[in-house]
Structure to design on (136 residues):
């Protein structure tokens, strides 16, 4: 989804990639909080995609496809679908489930930190991670 938001001119934020931030969580944290979840082995709207609610099935995901930065599927027409695997928490993700917030640049990180300072009960690490964004 991030690639599409950055690459599709009709969806791209006018502010550029800096307008998008990652809210970082982990499967371990979801498990600790006993939150209901599902995950897929590919794009959720594709008929061949399978859904799971058992972490023992994480091996069903194509981790190589998920981690690749190349979306082209010349030799593997199903690569794009598998890359778009999803992990979804049902209804609500509590703030304390977050491990951090990743931002495109220091300007956005400063703005996020300023906003978090207005909520003293919210202590969340903010990091600059331009390498998590697509160069489009």
């Amino acid at each position: 989804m991030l690639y599409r938001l950055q690459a599709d001119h009709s969806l791209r934020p006018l502010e550029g990639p800096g307008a998008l931030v990652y809210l970082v969580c982990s499967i371990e944290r979801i498990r600790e909080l006993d939150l209901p979840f599902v995950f897929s082995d590919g794009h959720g709207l594709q008929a061949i995609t399978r859904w799971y609610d058992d972490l023992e099935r994480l091996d069903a995901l194509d981790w190589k496809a998920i981690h690749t930065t190349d979306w082209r599927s010349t030799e593997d027409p199903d690569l794009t679908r598998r890359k778009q695997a999803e992990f979804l928490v049902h209804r609500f993700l509590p703030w304390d489930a977050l491990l951090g917030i990743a931002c495109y640049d220091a300007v956005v990180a400063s703005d996020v930190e300023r906003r978090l300072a207005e909520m003293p009960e919210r202590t969340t690490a903010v990091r600059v991670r331009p390498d998590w964004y697509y160069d489009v």
User: Anything to note?
Assistant: The helical segments are 2-7, 27-32, 63-67, 79-83, 106-117. The chain has a mean pLDDT of 87. Residues 43 and 84 are 5 Å apart (CA to CA). The two ends are 13 Å apart (CA to CA).
